[in-house]
Amino acid sequence: MYKISLITGDGIGPELSESVINILDAINDKIGVKVQVTKLEAGDAALKKTGKALPDETLDTIKKSDACLKAPVGESAADVIVVLRRLLDLYANIRPAKAYPNMPSLNQNTDMVIVRENTEDLYTGMEFDMGDTSIALRSISKRASERIANYAFITAEQRNKKKKVTCVHKSNVMRKTDGLFARTCEQVSKRYPNVAFENMYVDACAMNLIRQPEAFDVIVTTNLFGDILSDEASQVVGGLGMAPAANIGDNFALFEPVHGAAFDIAGKQIANPSSFILSAKMMFEWLSTKNNDKSCSDIAKKMEDAVYGIVKDGIKTKDIGGNKSTKEFTQNVISRII
Ligand code: ATP
Ligand code: MG
Predict the structure, then answer these.
(1) Model ipTM?
(2) Which terminal CB of the chain, N or C, has fewer other CB atoms within 10 Å?
(3) Which 3 state secondary structure label does DSSP give 154?
(4) What CATH number has the domain bearing residue 219?
């Protein structure tokens, strides 16, 4: 049995959580995998109630679980997810963007994954004021660059598609920080002679994601650029409602949608739960690899096939051109899986 901790979040978070919990309940013990889900508080609601965006009990329970699912958190997101990534050393943020049939996408052959460094860059919170000027410090280390580069090359090998890594940076302007990142990726590339390697400036990458998205395989980049480019990449293949992410460390992993709390559509039962369902799918893939448990990869495959199968049949939420509610979409996913 796997112990899964689940942060229910803010905005559309509770609706997405309900969807995923219903799916996990429905498949529990039916396809050879048993999960025990513990619901946890973190985010704006937790801050209001307990004075802490990331309460101690939440952190303790996460640490004792086998994996964590996290729905989006509102204003206090940085105090939850950025802290969790660093405390648990979840250094690789994996954000796939793949085109599927009957989904609005710029190019049907798009199939890429963004591997975003998750622990440093401008996200370390080193900001201060000097008179009427505010300063942010950007840190890039060789160690973090090397391990994310390795992760990207291994991902390209395992995907076994175009076998190409594109290193995205702005080393012509940030010569020290991005210079180190680009140089380190280049050095690591020598260890993977079967994988092609290219450099691209982040502005060119933003353009090429629209112009020729099918040319990408694995993008490796620093924290902030990865955040921005993955929102863009999600839009290339159907939008944020379909975009899952994994935060992976050596011993633990946390799975969450790419998007935020989307307060504009919260409580209306119109949010697309696919982003969170596909995050759970990534969790089962990770559990499968970690525990050498094939039934987990079977479940992952079933979840993915179910989501894209119903979308292909035109059962869609509003964001991707349909009229199904969050609940109706979820029921359809469940009936495809079991
Ligand atoms: P954050 O700062 O936390 O990233 P944000 O203001 O950028 O939040 P997001 O929550 O990331 O907003 O989403 C941007 C918009 O995309 C939302 O306002 C919403 O309309 C749409 N959106 C995001 N997620 C979904 C979803 N699961 N289903 C439908 N629409 C969504
Ligand atoms: Mg956003």
Answers:
(1) 0.94
(2) N
(3) helix
(4) 3.40.718.10
Helices in the chain by DSSP H: which ranges?
A: 13-27, 44-50, 56-64, 77, 83-87, 142-159, 177-189, 202-211, 223-236, 274-291, 294-312, 326-337
State the pTM of this model. Answer: 0.94
For the Cβ of 209 lying below 6 angstroms from any atom of ligand 1, the answer is: no
pLDDT value at 238 more than 90: no
Say whether both 120 and 79 belong to one domain: no
Q: pLDDT value at position 31?
A: 81
Mean pLDDT across 76-96: 94
Distance 260 CA to ligand 2 centre (A): 5
Question: Is 231 labeled as catalytic in the residue annotation?
Answer: yes
Give 11 Cα–ligand 1 centroid separation in angstroms. 10
Q: Is residue 99 in some structural domain?
A: no
Same domain flag for 112 and 216 = yes
The helix or strand, by DSSP H or E, that contains position 50, with its residue range, turns out to be: helix 44-50
